[in-house]
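Handout, section B. The chain below has 270 residues.
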Amino acid sequence: MSIDVGRLEDQLLEMSAEGAPGREFCEAISELAGTGRFEQLRDALPGIVYDELWARYQQDAAAFVAGWRKLAQEMRQGFIQHARQRLTSLTRLQQANEGVATPAWQEIQRALDSQQNDLLRTAMAIELLEMVEPAVLRATQLRECVVALASSEDADRYLDEATRCYFYGLFTACAVMSRSVLEEAIKQKLPATLTRLVRTRYRNTATLGNLLHEVNNNLQLTGIDGDFPRIANQVNDAGKKAVHQGLLSEDEARLCLQNARQALELLLRR
């Protein structure tokens, strides 16, 4: 069965528009006020809120009804953008914009959504669906990493995380995690005598660069393939660039990950 991601996205957008937080609330107020049933709101709203709305309704009934109907429309039409803004507010630095007015419909929608979290749920769902096809394409550019010897559970987890970061477009994180998997795998591979030397010399804080230096100087002792340090150093360079020099491109992340996987195959030979 073929999965139509575009269709899923369309269905999600339709569901989100229909179920936008606050839309039914605003429509109900508009409907009850416009049909002479305002009194029914008394049992549904806190007393202070009911009194405030009743006062506004008495001032201009037509404008009150139209205003709440407009709020319902704005909530429906602006929900997706508001959902994205809600997610972005958690992922990026937010400046204190004193005096900047938030639209009334957003304030109501956010307040009504404080328990259900539909804004975040919708934004997450949209973002994850948008990742599917690019992630599939990136996955096709990799091959399985087949090794003769096992390493450690931590090494497997680092590789898993590095690969998923690449799939989902977290390219800088991919390079950082690729460096981590080689660090862990080398530590597991070193002979006991060299392990003790490394721990003493670097006070248990050896970096990948330190480890590669020791491996390169002790290839015969370690039994590691002679091509390993060259490829692993390319991973280390990409990881250092990611940490110290700036964000990596997709091509840089893919090359780094491919090198890390190739280095693991060389390292974990019999």
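Note. The chain has two domains: 5-128, 141-267. Compare this with the example in section A.
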